[in-house]
Design goal:
By secondary structure, the chain is of the alpha/beta class. The chain has one domain (2-193, 201-241): Rossmann fold (3-Layer(aba) Sandwich). It contains nine helices and ten strands. It has helices spanning 40-47, 69-78, 94-104, 110-123, 139-151, 169-184, 196-202, 220-225, 230-241; strands at residues 2-11, 14-24, 29-33, 55-60, 63-64, 79-82, 157-161, 188-192, 205-210, 213-218. β7 (157-161), α6 and β8 (188-192) form a beta-alpha-beta unit. The model has no long low-confidence stretch (mean pLDDT 94). The structure holds adenosine-5'-triphosphate (ATP) and magnesium ion. Adenosine-5'-triphosphate binds next to β2 and α1.
Amino acid sequence: MIRMEGVNKYFDDFQALTDINLEVPTGQVVVVLGPSGSGKSTLCRTINRLETVESGAIAIDGVPLPEEGKALARLRADVGMVFQQFNLFPHMTIKDNVTLGPMKVRKLKKADAEKRAMALLDRVGIANQSHKYPAQLSGGQQQRVAIARALAMSPKVMLFDEPTSALDPEMVNEVLEVMADLAREGMTMLVVSHEMGFARKVADRVLFMADGAIVEDASPEDFFTSPTSSRAKDFLGKILAH
Ligand SMILES: Nc1ncnc2c1ncn2[C@@H]1O[C@H](COP(=O)(O)OP(=O)(O)OP(=O)(O)O)[C@@H](O)[C@H]1O
Ligand SMILES: [Mg+2]
């Protein structure tokens, strides 16, 4: 579903991604770990072309990423992304946040988009908040709206970049549970997260990045019990220590 071949990404002279080769089959859940600055967000952002790459090839469901225009808008709809900061439109109600994309990009009629939005809001447990504005919701609720909004586009792939790290601790689980449900339903997911419980329970595969490269690519079991690189051992030592 996601294929990256020989991808290199620079910010001026700085190489942020180095020779990334990655194939994610349909329905697989990949958790991406790694220290700050290792390129995890950049990896996500290249997959829906929020960042361009200097060399290499990226394809979603067999189709190379389009450069611009309508095809790019469609790609963005196919590849849903949920960020650390929820990025909801503050001046629009929850329902309107969820219906906007499907109406504009997928050309759904308003009534159909609203029906779908309410079903998705129900699925993430906040149908009763649909008339409110983002600022009137808790962080956990806002993030669940962000997930519903991405799902409203019927994406083929969902990318999550630290979706719970801006949340108060008591709200983390409600978001992780929505993500785990999505994984169970067979969504192809790439998740940057340091939630180790989620990685162990939900991930099919763990990628560990350091200095812009994928250093380890293993099952959660193998990664957590016997990491091979010193970078990963060091990382796990730090994060499991607290
Ligand atoms: N727009 C940009 N311009 C210049 N350098 C950038 C830009 N975005 C990212 N970088 C650099 O690329 C490297 C990788 O950044 P990235 O945000 O992908 O790391 P990350 O693994 O997501 O880190 P974190 O865990 O802190 O979110 C960092 O050194 C960062 O400073
Ligand atoms: Mg990041």
